[in-house]
Batch of 4 targets.
Target 1
Amino acid sequence: MKSLLAICAVLLTSAVTMCGQVPMASSHPPTAAAVAPKPNRSTFVPPVSDKPVARVNGVVLTQRDLAREEYAIFPYAKTHGGIPIGVEPNVRRGAMQMIIFEELVYQEAKRRNFTIPPARVDKAMVEFRKQFHSPDEYKAFLKQECNGSEQVARTRVIRSLTIDAFLKQEVDTKSVVSVAEARAYYQKNFDNYRMPESYSFQSISIIPPDKSDAAQLKEAKKHADDAYRQAKATRSYDEFGLLAEKISEDNYRVMMGDHKAVEVKNIPPPVLEQLKKMRPGQLTDLLSFDGIYTVVRMNRHNPPRLKSFDEVKDSLRQTMQQEKTERLRSSLDKKLYSAGKVETL
């Protein structure tokens, strides 16, 4: 349920920060465990009571509903033996917000007479059953979560699809950002797309041990001279990169020594001084600064420029759409909440 996944990102910011995971959401029935069209078996939760935790316009939400949402938000709870103590309060708060929001959305969808075609429900049920390894596992799920009834599962699927359809109409469709909208934003915010001057380069570095004595420093210099000699023998990006992977001692060795594009303000002065005089493919002298020996291969000089609209169009539209989606969802949440009667128990 793509829409519900995204809602969770809006409602559960604090939980995401604590958990470091992409939140997941599933829709829940008022008094029993939910079955979403495309569930994950991580939605199985330890046995919990049906003690009421909230009432939404008279409809009771239970501890079971809350626990399922908590495990959906923190899918590693099963492998961790539960939700970690330090994370649990934020997860619970987010889960409570989510189950209340879903119930409000469902009630509003029903009020507006949203219906789901039977063929779509049938397809969702087929996809749901495919999540299980065997018929016995599916039956065990039905027994634990749906009182052993496939009709109960079907009812839950219809509920989830109804919520999804409502959100698609009220949020997703209205969140689409046209090319014209994106272009207008781009033209009003040129400064956001200015690229500062930079250089793209690779490096091979030799780092003497901390607190080196004279003998160690002499050995490091010898090692650096040999590295420089080998670097000068390379004739391409790949040759230099493979040598960096083999002999360099800085962190960029795992990336073929490639620093990508580095703004001039972030390049060490001794390196920048030489880069300004170089052409692509040339090497600096063996440099010594900050206690290390380095040789740099200049790959490209990138003058300052303004990114074109075509370069940023896709990512800009995506960003704008995400922001628009969040605003619409937040507005919908506030509207439904203020118009209803919500009690936490």
Target 2
Amino acid sequence: MTLFYVPLESYRERYTMQLSAPKTGWLERNWIKAGIPYHRVEGARSAVPRTIRIGCVLDAVGRSLFCFSQVEELLRLAEAGELTSDDIIYFDDFWTPGIEVLPYAFSLLNIKPKVYAFLYAQSVDEFDFTYSMRSWMRHFEKGIGEFLDGIFVCGPCLQDLVVFGGIASREKVHVTGLIFDSEEVRERMPKGKTLRLDQVVYSSRWDREKNPWFFLKVAEKVLAERPQAKFVVCTSSPTIRSNDPKLLGLLWKAVDRYSGRIVVKQNLTKEEYYAELCQSKIQMNTADQDFVAFTLLESSVAGCYPIYPYFRSFPETFLHRPGFMYERLDVKDAAKKVIGVLDQDDLWNEKAIQLRAWIHERFDSSWLRMLNVMGLSDTVVADPHQ
């Protein structure tokens, strides 16, 4: 039995560079440590991390070319008899262009390998930007949901959406937690203690579904009461992007108005971004759509105090502990929460940071939960949401 791994293409400004990098990716480094044999199905495009040119999440054209070449390689392996019914295929992303040809091709080749994929959102989520494409996307999703032997999701909220959206039966949809490796993240952070500033970091995409306008409203209210505070918008993109140009206009106006107190830091390496987190007190999220954020897990490793909306998946992520959440789209409540946290100096000592480690530590075992479902491990791992 061989595990055929179909990774996402690496983009410097997205999580895919750490999630899917050869040998060092959050899945692969754990498979290697555990001695799990696997075959990486690489795309034909350059392995050098690319920059998003078309689209807002992954490059809509470039990634499709990459995925088509991966599917082509799977078909070549199957035709040569190197991929058989005894094997397992795992896709980093449920939405893999070209995957729809596999059921027919495999039936003609008279093989039936087990096939699994991780699903992050898709058009089942009314707050996701893909929801507007559901008239044609939903057909693809239902077809792939029927073809797959198992679908991995990060939490119960998304599991319910996938099931009630008719994508797959509940038996097929497995809650494993978000794929993460806090050890890899910690290795890239600055060594030694860093002075914590009255600084709030915003790490989400500057797109509509993330409500960045609300972040600016909260920043303005906080700065009116705590003028020493600083709000930093971080991105690894060469220049900050948005699916709504008006939102960029609001941002740059705020930067001009609050010179030095609302700032944008662009083209950050992961090491530079982690250094920014390590000197910040708060990492804030204002999104409607985020099923456990990679940025949340990274920032909690860095010791930031996360402040998130009490909405959708976030209550289950924080195990319903209200101290980390504010009422959704309530500027007054969010600003009060930020100010209250900034004023508590004992939230960033070593003991307090360690007491918050449960936020990310539960997801270090996501890779093992996935292996259990695929029948590649029998190690029992606790549900990350209990």
Target 3
Amino acid sequence: MSTVARWCALMLAAACAGPACALSAELVYAKVSAAVWRVRTYDGDNLPLAQGSAVVVGPGAAVTNCHVLAKAKRVSLQREKEAFDATLDMWDVKRDVCQLKAPALHAAAVTLGDSSKVAVGQSVFAIGNPKGLELTMSAGLVSSLRRNDQNQLVLIQTSAAISGGSSGGGLFDDQARLIGLTTIGSVTGDAQNLNFAIPAQWVSELPQRHAQAKAVQALAGGAPSGAAATPPAQDYARIDELDKLPFATERMRERYRYFLTRPLPRAFVISEGGDWRLASGAESSNPQLSGAPAERALRECEKARTGRCIVYAVDDRVVWRPEGATR
């Protein structure tokens, strides 16, 4: 989109500010795309490590998924020919929300929407960098609202296409408000149009939860790490253990992050063929669903016949250990 066309689109978007005036996909893109950036991370040798997306939420501040930053020693926010070094400013690893600080970044911030008002069936637009393809937009509907056992919203399910590299990108409503951060795409191997975002409300709550996390860290005697490139390593232990498995894939990791949002009791089972199964909730009277979650997940894994099945995690605890390791 040319500069003149973008300016005209922004003027139209500004004129259409009422709740009954839904913006077209073109106007939503014109209004918010400048706030969506590519995240590139690098290891200690300055070699590329991973990539994802981020959304500008304030002066020199952008939010992304914490898992995008795992193991990073350096982080860069990039867009077209621009690149700015960034440091970790705030984190909430349990919710997978991290904020980066890049003082040299001058980009208009998005408007945060109210996640509590998101409704199934409403139109949404995802903007991110799937497979490194900058500023890719997809459209869809809110397919469902996934809640935990306390009835708290933990995932917005959407039919808007999301692929690897879009983690930390924006999910916007038809008023160009950020309602979620895209995080998990196609969590089941044969699913179509099954994608997820974490609620934007968690971005609003990040400062308070970060302060609580730092207070806990201080009580435990941990060193402050607010300027580091990656959140505290111990908070990633449950996911990073998967890196010790030669058959772990990024889709398995995505499935595991989804597992961590499921109600207790729960279990996550993996196979040496790269498959995964999960089960959650209390035992059912249905014979097919009877038994503890670990038993149910193991049965499903063994049916797939993709290699030896292993119980990886039960509830919030990783029970798998490398051969020869002590518990």
Target 4
Amino acid sequence: MIFRFLGAQWLAACFVGLVSFGVSVLIARTLGPELFGAYAIAIAAGAVVAILIDGGFGKLLQRERAMASPELTGFMPLLPGLAYGHALLMLAGLCLAAMVFLPKQALTVVAALLFFGAAVLNQFGLALMRGDGRLVRDAGWQVGNRSLSAVCVLLVLWWGASQPWQMLMAQFVGAAAFGFFVARYLRVLPSFKFSAHVYKAVLPFAWIDLACVLYFRADMVLFQFLGVAKLEVGKYGVAYRLLEAVILLALPLGLILFRRFRLGSTEPRRVVRQMWSTILVAAFLGGSLVLLAWAFGEPLVQWAYGASYAVPVSC
């Protein structure tokens, strides 16, 4: 059963990774290094503020659907609606703040916020699926979500889009359309009530997510404030896209471990023993990919993104 779930999730991760890589190649070649640098900064900043939009509800939904905590049992029917309500309020507030405080970059920033906001709402639906253990269906939904957003990007490229905000809005449209389907399927309606009890439970997850995102994304955001040329940021961005492809392969194992540990929280050592074979296989595949990237990374970047991205970064 574990390998069936892991196989489905890895197939989905490979598909999402390949499509995302292909989309990033098309966007990078269309925008060029300088505009792609602006696009990469917007993506990195969007990933950071997405933590505020999520608020830790994604992890909480996944945990509570796997096995409800005694102190949250009475809130279980309300949690999806509270998560959607929190995300929509935060998204509206962040978009308003961007228009007030960043008027020159407002179009790109708002487009990035809308895209990541829609992605967060989609993740809430996937979190419910993962908590229920429906990882095969979850994998199918990941494929559908990525396919729809990629089609939207291809359409705007075909129509002649040439600005970062246009690429981000296209992905928002695809994510929002899929998110509407998810919400209808799960019959979730946003709730704008405030519950201190729920926020007390969700706060640790928000801190963990924030720490992880800052670790992986802070460099791209800092480039904006340190005055690094967009040209150099664009080159750095394409290398980071390759790193993200490797990270994607590790995520399915994390999903399975999360639910397994939650269900077996009374016997964690037994759960670890059962998962060793899966962990070893994943470690072998990850190590192999690192070696391949080390050996062929530079020619791969030059072949995929073009000669202008292959120049060594000077900063």
